[in-house]
Specification:
By secondary structure, the protein is α/β, with parallel strands linked by helices. Helices cover about 40% and strands about 20% of the residues.
Length: about 450
């Protein structure tokens, strides 16, 4: 594929003004909505092949969320596109001030392998509703899903509007050498550094959705059955290959034994008769071997079995984990949960604030003072009180990281905002020209200025 030529064609198409029309944008969102519905079985088959992901989980975490986001944009995008009148300072009388949204232009969307449909199409929805063109680069680590996305998008959009570039590092590198008007990247912090460096050459604005080690705290007042079940859900989901997975657990010593018992119970309920054949697998051998090695970072108290033939790792709970162990030095991205016992919440807070700011934080408590203390002390992208993961599954709140876990946010209107530049415009009347700003400055003009600007 001639990537440079593709981008030039998109730039020509964007500059024609075709993508700015309100009806065009809404119709393209509807076209994508219909295509996702029509190709649900294709997506299910591809994700089964890549990650052993069952159809129910595909809908819950991928296609269903995409369809929900599409519905939200179809309903609200027309309103977001409108100019918004704002107040005008008296010193600028007579005039009208308004904010005018305009699309950035030709955008690049680089999506990861762990939720290859959701994390590709959700940003694309924002680009379409904002009026941009887009080059979409799905991950080579999930080839069947990437091929399905290329088929779906290629069948409904011309390449000068929306194009899919498949491939691996060579294609990623070539894309990042091009000049885009906006870049949206989801992936690891290490690659995020490279993307930002490349974007800086052209002063290209960007969104970085990264990751990090997201902590969980279970205090002595928590509902332990609920806590164990919801944390286990967060770890089993996609085999822990989730950017907001509960990465490690601080559990109060008074409830630790009960938590371990309830966690084991939850896993038995999730997998009747111990049949884990439908659970997701690790994406490739490299990551399987990396995650498997982390099992040696503590004492296995639940799970621990592995099957290299299908890259399967059983949901595992680790005890006796030290803060300097290998599993505490990197994002796990697997179904292993290391536990650290605590007695004083200040120890948890001190550790969390001493680390790079995480993408998520989860606190299980019924103590309002404890909740307030943790939220006021710890900086993180987003999170939950008494649950995990679900804060990302909404179009009504922005999702994004802070510091090392990301830059910018999206979902709902924030997705529209991400691909939009807001122009501030003053339209000045000509029937009167207030002389106060013009030279020569006099004591009378000075008094007027102080009156208007005080």
């Amino acid at each position: 594929m001639d990537i440079s030529g593709l981008i030039e064609n998109q730039r020509t198409y964007f500059q024609s003004g075709a993508t700015r029309d309100k009806d065009f944008r809404i119709s393209m969102l509807r076209k994508l909505q219909a295509a996702v519905k029509a190709n649900e079985e294709l997506i299910n088959t591809a994700m089964k092949q890549d990650l052993n992901k069952c159809a129910d989980e595909v809908y819950m975490t991928e296609t269903g969320l995409v369809l929900d986001e599409l519905k939200y944009h179809i309903r609200h995008a027309a309103g977001w596109m409108k100019e918004r009148t704002v107040r005008t300072p008296l010193v600028q009388f007579p005039s009208r001030s308004f904010v005018s949204p305009e699309p950035f232009g030709v955008s690049l969307i680089m999506s990861p392998w762990n939720y290859p449909v959701l994390l590709c199409l959700d940003p694309l929805i924002g680009a379409i509703s904002a009026g941009c063109t887009a080059v979409v680069k799905p991950s080579a680590y999930t080839p069947a899903t990437s091929s399905a996305l290329a088929h779906i998008l290629g069948a409904i959009f011309p390449p000068e509007y929306i194009a899919v570039v498949e491939g691996g590092r060579e294609q990623n590198a070539e894309l990042l050498e091009q000049k885009f008007d906006y870049i949206f990247f989801t992936g690891s912090p290490s690659v995020g550094h490279l993307v930002m460096e490349k974007a800086s050459r052209h002063l290209t604005p960007l969104t970085l959705e990264l990751g990090g080690k997201s902590p969980v705290i279970v205090d002595e007042t928590a509902d332990i059955r609920i806590a164990a079940r919801r944390i286990a859900f967060g770890k089993v989901l996609n085999a822990g290959q989730t950017c907001v997975e509960p990465d490690y657990l601080f559990v109060h010593e008074h409830v630790k034994a009960d938590f371990v018992a309830e966690y084991k119970k939850a896993l038995k309920e999730f997998f009747p008769d111990g049949d884990m054949s439908t659970m997701n697998v690790i994406v490739n051998d490299k990551h399987f071997n990396r995650v498997k090695a982390l099992l040696e970072s503590g004492t296995i108290v639940a799970g621990g079995r592995t099957d290299p033939s299908r890259r399967f790792i059983e949901p595992t709970l680790l005890d006796n984990v030290s803060l300097d162990s290998p599993i505490m030095q990197e994002e796990i991205f697997g179904p292993i949960l290391p536990m650290i016992t605590y007695t004083d919440i200040e120890m948890c807070i001190e550790y969390i604030v001493g680390q790079p700011r995480p993408l998520a934080l989860y606190l299980f408590t019924s103590d309002a003072k404890q909740e307030k203390r943790v939220l006021s002390a710890c900086s993180f992208g987003g999170g939950c009180i008494n649950d995990t993961i679900i804060h990302i599954a909404t179009s009504y709140m922005p999702f994004g990281g802070v510091g090392a876990s990301g830059m910018g946010s999206y979902h709902g209107k924030k997705s529209f905002d991400a691909f939009t530049h807001y122009r501030s415009i003053v339209k000045k009347a000509t029937w009167f020209d207030m002389p106060v700003r013009y030279r020569p400055y006099t004591s009378f003009k000075r008094r007027l200025l102080r009156l208007f600007l005080n």
